[in-house]
Fold:
Amino acid sequence: MNVKEMLKYSVAGSVRFSVVNSVWDSVEDSVRDSVWVSVRDSVSNSVHDSVRNSVRNSVDAQISEYNYDC
Structure:
């Protein structure tokens, strides 16, 4: 194998390695971002529902007490 062929294979290997790493990084970032958004939205919705239900129950209890006192 001469120097020209060695350079060709070396460059081809480097390009292939670079492309594979770039694609892998892109997929990894996409999956991580998707999972993070899903978890964040789930927690946010859960907290929001919990707070809303707690406030609703508290208000309903106060209204019931007020109606009972009247």
Notes: The CA atoms of residues 8 and 14 lie 10 Å apart. The radius of gyration is 30 Å.
